[in-house]
Amino acid sequence: DEKTMEKIVALCKGRGFVYPGSEIYGGLSNTWDYGPLGVEFKNNVKRAWHQKFVQESPYNVGLDSAILMNPQVWVASGHVGGFSDPLMDCRDCKTRHRADKLIEDTGVNPAGWSFEEMSQYIKDHNICCPECGSNNFTDIRKFNLMFKTFQGVTEDAKNEIYLRPETAQGIFVNFQNIQRTTRKKLPFGVAQIGKSFRNEITPGNFVFRTREFEQMELEFFCKPGTDLEWFAYWKEYCKQFLLSLGMKEENLRLRDHEQKELSHYSNATTDFEFLFPFGWGELWGIADRTNFDLTQHQNHSGKSMEYFDQEANERYVPYVIEPSLGADRVALAFLCDAYDEEVVDAEKNDVRTVLRLHPVLAPFKAAVLPLSKKLGEKAQEVYQLLCKHFMVDYDDAGSIGKRYRRQDEIGTPFCLTYDFDSLEDNCVTIRHRDTMAQERVAIDELISWIEDKLAF
Ligand code: ATP
């Protein structure tokens, strides 16, 4: 519900995960800055993705391509002509709406509809402006979502370029470079994490939809005819990725696109949707895009995008499977999924806020807590030992109970208390975030003990 979202936003701001952007100047709407804990958390999400999709995959390699690209790229990709939202203004209160979103809010999916079909539906169902209740709308018109800027010193049309609206095209234009230099045979994939920009009409819901965001995209190239098999493979792989990081299965649903909804070039598309506090929202789009993108670039650049298949002794433009995930969006999903308020003692009205994040995603893997300030020096030694291996926190302020609660709230999975017995037995007490259970572990074994908990 709405309250939960407000609490998550407040926690993010209060504990240094995410701040409103440019705050001292009154902000810039829908921009957000990741603070000290947020940068650790989001980096952990990106690292986990890279680990599963590159490091542990026998097929995939990485790439980090430029945000600014030759404008012809966006002509070839279809973004100059077609990357637009159906916009409509309310004549009475002057607010701007996406016609497709207003229709979606009635439980109907308008994907693939023409502007006429959308207009007709809005009239027939008397859909009104959510702001003022009027049904006096302008016609629907196209609004291109790409951010324009100028390259070089003169601000003329010749120097107009775009901020990329997706990372995928950087992969397509490098297809031949990567194939040649890695000497990879099909099937293989290229994975990239980076910023993308879209001039969204209706950003909102915290970092769910922003105009500047990060994407984690894989373009997996395969032989035509094997594409549906690989589509199924990556769909399952993506699902297992989320589940292995602790995402609750009941908050996840896979929605296969119907024929009418599919782009003309797509053989299959599935949206992974997550149940956010504000409702179901798209998390991950997985599409079989056939040879559309490479063929477009072949036609526009005049450079061959063909692959020579030695085994079959034939040349063809590969098909591609594209799982495309928003880093900010999936980070938000993990946060919402992990957020919990647990009643510790109903009579005393004692409730603790816990982020039940998978240890590998948690900003701090552990916090070192000296029971008494007198033990500070020895506790610091434990901290110094661990910080070479993991992000760890050190906290000696306030009662031990209060310190536990502070760590619960930011998702630290293990609190390591150094007490007076530690001077004798060289052990610390590990207090588990989720169960609050405690156990005694030798300082010598801490590194491998924590390491074990980070597997996913
Ligand atoms: P939507 O329908 O939500 O606008 P889309 O279908 O346009 O999304 P894609 O173009 O498929 O999204 O982008 C792939 C992924 O990138 C999305 O599943 C989402 O996780 C992420 N993403 C897209 N747009 C945004 C945005 N404005 N802010 C944050 N993440 C985004």
UniProtKB/TrEMBL annotation:
<protein>
    <recommendedName>
        <fullName>Glycine--tRNA ligase</fullName>
        <ecNumber>6.1.1.14</ecNumber>
    </recommendedName>
</protein>
<feature type="binding site">
    <location>
        <begin position="213"/>
        <end position="217"/>
    </location>
    <ligand>
        <name>substrate</name>
    </ligand>
</feature>
<dbReference type="InterPro" id="IPR004154">
    <property type="entry name" value="Anticodon-bd"/>
</dbReference>
<keyword id="KW-0067">ATP-binding</keyword>
<dbReference type="GO" id="GO:0004081">
    <property type="term" value="F:bis(5'-nucleosyl)-tetraphosphatase (asymmetrical) activity"/>
</dbReference>
<feature type="domain" description="Aminoacyl-transfer RNA synthetases class-II family profile">
    <location>
        <begin position="146"/>
        <end position="363"/>
    </location>
</feature>
<dbReference type="InterPro" id="IPR036621">
    <property type="entry name" value="Anticodon-bd_dom_sf"/>
</dbReference>
<keyword id="KW-0547">Nucleotide-binding</keyword>
<dbReference type="InterPro" id="IPR027031">
    <property type="entry name" value="Gly-tRNA_synthase/POLG2"/>
</dbReference>
<keyword id="KW-0436">Ligase</keyword>
<dbReference type="InterPro" id="IPR045864">
    <property type="entry name" value="aa-tRNA-synth_II/BPL/LPL"/>
</dbReference>
<dbReference type="InterPro" id="IPR002315">
    <property type="entry name" value="tRNA-synt_gly"/>
</dbReference>
<dbReference type="Pfam" id="PF00587">
    <property type="entry name" value="tRNA-synt_2b"/>
</dbReference>
<dbReference type="InterPro" id="IPR033731">
    <property type="entry name" value="GlyRS-like_core"/>
</dbReference>
<comment type="function">
    <text>Catalyzes the attachment of glycine to tRNA(Gly).</text>
</comment>
<dbReference type="GO" id="GO:0005829">
    <property type="term" value="C:cytosol"/>
</dbReference>
<dbReference type="InterPro" id="IPR002314">
    <property type="entry name" value="aa-tRNA-synt_IIb"/>
</dbReference>
<dbReference type="GO" id="GO:0006426">
    <property type="term" value="P:glycyl-tRNA aminoacylation"/>
</dbReference>
<keyword id="KW-0648">Protein biosynthesis</keyword>
<feature type="binding site">
    <location>
        <position position="166"/>
    </location>
    <ligand>
        <name>substrate</name>
    </ligand>
</feature>
<dbReference type="InterPro" id="IPR006195">
    <property type="entry name" value="aa-tRNA-synth_II"/>
</dbReference>
<keyword id="KW-0030">Aminoacyl-tRNA synthetase</keyword>
<dbReference type="InterPro" id="IPR022961">
    <property type="entry name" value="Gly_tRNA_ligase_bac"/>
</dbReference>
<feature type="binding site">
    <location>
        <begin position="282"/>
        <end position="283"/>
    </location>
    <ligand>
        <name>ATP</name>
    </ligand>
</feature>
<dbReference type="GO" id="GO:0015966">
    <property type="term" value="P:diadenosine tetraphosphate biosynthetic process"/>
</dbReference>
<dbReference type="GO" id="GO:0070062">
    <property type="term" value="C:extracellular exosome"/>
</dbReference>
<feature type="binding site">
    <location>
        <position position="98"/>
    </location>
    <ligand>
        <name>substrate</name>
    </ligand>
</feature>
<dbReference type="Pfam" id="PF03129">
    <property type="entry name" value="HGTP_anticodon"/>
</dbReference>
<keyword id="KW-0963">Cytoplasm</keyword>
<feature type="binding site">
    <location>
        <begin position="208"/>
        <end position="213"/>
    </location>
    <ligand>
        <name>ATP</name>
    </ligand>
</feature>
<dbReference type="GO" id="GO:1990742">
    <property type="term" value="C:microvesicle"/>
</dbReference>
<feature type="binding site">
    <location>
        <begin position="322"/>
        <end position="326"/>
    </location>
    <ligand>
        <name>substrate</name>
    </ligand>
</feature>
<dbReference type="GO" id="GO:0004820">
    <property type="term" value="F:glycine-tRNA ligase activity"/>
</dbReference>
<dbReference type="GO" id="GO:0140096">
    <property type="term" value="F:catalytic activity, acting on a protein"/>
</dbReference>
<dbReference type="GO" id="GO:0005524">
    <property type="term" value="F:ATP binding"/>
</dbReference>
<comment type="similarity">
    <text>Belongs to the class-II aminoacyl-tRNA synthetase family.</text>
</comment>
<comment type="subunit">
    <text>Homodimer.</text>
</comment>
<feature type="binding site">
    <location>
        <begin position="326"/>
        <end position="329"/>
    </location>
    <ligand>
        <name>ATP</name>
    </ligand>
</feature>
<feature type="binding site">
    <location>
        <begin position="198"/>
        <end position="200"/>
    </location>
    <ligand>
        <name>ATP</name>
    </ligand>
</feature>
<dbReference type="GO" id="GO:0016740">
    <property type="term" value="F:transferase activity"/>
</dbReference>
